[in-house]
Sequence to fold (219 residues):
Amino acid sequence: MLKKYRFFILTMLTISLVAVVSFYSVLTPEKKLPIYQPSMVKFQLVDSTIQHVKRFHKISDFKLVNQNNNIVTNDFYDGKIYVADFFFTTCPGICPIMKENMIDLQNEFIYDDQIMLLSHTVTPEIDSVSVLKDYSIENGVLDSKWNLVTGDKKQIYNLARKSYLVAEDIESELKYDMIHTENFVLIDPLRRIRGFYDGTNDDSIDKLIEDIYLLKQEF
Fold:
């Protein structure tokens, strides 16, 4: 008798299993990264003019120059996921560690054209194109993957404080001076901030890599 209904029983069990899995999938929300707004970030890192902003924050348009003396604008990153940071070539403190972790990111995604890197110097008066070029060669920067950019100091200051939200203002005789942080910023193809990560911490870099793969699923 059991043999007679074996196929029917197996079929019903399969249907039931599929139903349970489907029901669980519906009830379990898809994991997505948050979309960061200025109001969600430590206020010291955000320009006072946008600290209240709770919606629609995006990276502003920019026009800078990279290590190959090529113009780099936001159009270059259209449709891309990228990681941005701020540094300077003569930095003796956190920058060397950040650089090594950026190299690790470069190597992790070296064959993935959707993932890019962008490093802004905070001392453009020192980090000229030729200085950035020497730095890039010395550190094995892949030009097609990673732009090191310099340019107008006011623009870089505004990007750090009003777009990427990663620098503290300082009192100085020089205009647009700032203290850059160790933060790496994950940007999605719609120019929105999807995460902040400690560029000097291995565990945080591992989380960044995990989140990049998660973000790729979304786009």
Residues 6-27 form the longest helix (22 residues). Residues 40 and 109 are 29 Å apart (CA to CA).
